[in-house]
Write a structure and sequence with these properties.
Helix content is about 40%, strand content about 20%. Strand 8 and strand 9 (about 290-300) form a beta hairpin. The two termini are about 30 Å apart. The strands form 3 sheets. The protein has a 6-stranded mixed β-sheet with strand order 2-4-1-5-6-7, sandwiched between helices. The protein has a 3-stranded mixed β-sheet with strand order 3-9-8. The radius of gyration is 23 Å and the shape is flat. It has about 375 residues and is of the alpha/beta class.
Length: about 375
């Protein structure tokens, strides 16, 4: 699953990306420093794996992972090709969700493409460019559906109705993801890969001096939260530069640094966890002396399809899943103890996996 890091030039995108992935993406004080998207794979923090590792002392430890793309800064006119816009919009189309970095700090040494810092205006600039690109896509879909419906192809009515609703919605400057569509219409629209249909988390990038301050004392963050609330989007308050510094530290130093800042977790850990949730993902766990591992699946996945994540033979020859909740296993200390107390369940093909299930799949090919 892929998350694209987007925003205007010089808002801290590449700095945040460096911190997330330690991939060394170029970060400089001028627009379009990033042209091709930098990519990086980052582990999803999961303390449950640490508990299982202490129980099993495995040869291998494998957390779940997400892929991040650092997409070059968009500018006004991107939907018409300004600032290499067409290229950048195509990169956004390829990701599953968006981390929209919004500058919420003043610094005369860091150039802003608009000359001043205004989070609401900056968000509107990005939203407008994405929406303009989407409107063009939906208008083409509407034209095609109108033609087919006139020719008696009634099955395209949902497509035509979805296009009409989306165009009226986006003409008001609203993202496609907040449009009121039926399940059938939404399924049709999702096949159009609209930019504003993607889920978003706003990363409010604050100055180091603002870390620990009540948000009410940071007006720029309040502006971001107001916009996110209208959209039903998430907001993460983060200092990209501080997170980049933290990412360079050893684990023990990192913890001390966070304590000095009065933080329980780094912003990066919170961002990655939030991104995982944003994509509707959960983890099931496998544990033994060979490996302790988190496996990524979508919410609602049934046991055979989850087994197929490990190996296609597991799904093809699925017999049953032996499942114990992580909390029960951690409390009892071993799988045998859980079995003695009747905490290990035998689940069949219709079982819907839950986050934190520790599973042993039985199969026969």
């Amino acid at each position: 699953m892929k998350l694209g890091v987007v925003g205007l030039p010089n808002v801290g995108k590449s700095t945040l990306f460096n911190a997330i992935t330690s991939a060394g993406a170029q970060a400089a004080n001028y627009p379009f420093c990033t042209i091709e998207p930098n990519t990086g794979v980052v582990a999803v923090p999961d303390p449950r794996l640490d508990v299982l590792a202490r129980m099993y002392n495995p040869e291998k430890y494998t957390p779940a992972a997400l892929e991040f793309f650092d997409i070059a800064g968009l500018v006004k006119g991107a939907s018409r090709g300004e600032g290499l816009g067409n290229r950048f919009l195509s990169h956004i189309r390829e990701v599953d969700a968006i981390v929209h970095v919004v500058r919420c700090f003043e610094d005369e040494n860091v150039i802003h493409v608009e000359g001043t810092v205004d989070p609401a205006r900056d968000i509107d600039t990005i939203q407008t460019e994405l929406a303009l690109a989407d409107i063009e896509t939906v208008m083409k879909r509407r034209e095609k559906a109108q033609h087919l419906v006139r020719n008696g192809e009634k099955k395209y009515r949902d497509e035509l109705e979805a296009a009409e609703i989306l165009l009226a919605h986006m003409d008001k400057g609203l993202p496609a993801r907040t449009a009121k569509l039926t399940d059938e219409q939404r399924a049709v629209a999702e096949g159009w890969f609209l930019l504003t249909m993607k889920k978003v988390v706003y990363a409010a990038n604050i100055a180091e001096a603002d870390i620990g301050k009540p948000e009410g004392e940071i007006p720029m963050v309040a502006a971001v939260r107001a916009i996110a609330a209208r959209e039903g989007a998430e907001v993460l308050v983060i200092s990209a530069k501080v997170e980049e510094d933290i990412a360079q530290l050893e684990p023990a130093e990192k913890q001390l640094f966070l304590e000095d800042l009065g933080l329980e977790k780094s912003g990066l850990d919170r961002l990655v966890t939030l991104g995982y949730r944003l994509l509707g993902l959960i983890s099931f766990l496998t544990a033994g002396p060979k490996e302790v591992r988190a496996w990524t699946i979508a919410e609602g996945t049934k046991a055979p399809q989850a087994a197929g994540k490990i190996h296609t033979d597991f799904e093809r020859g699925f017999i049953r899943a032996e499942v114990v909740a992580f909390e029960d296993l951690a409390r009892e200390g071993s799988m045998n103890a859980c079995k003695e107390k009747g905490l290990v369940r035998s689940e069949g093909k219709e079982y819907v996996m839950k986050d934190g299930d520790v599973v042993l799949f039985r199969f026969n090919v």
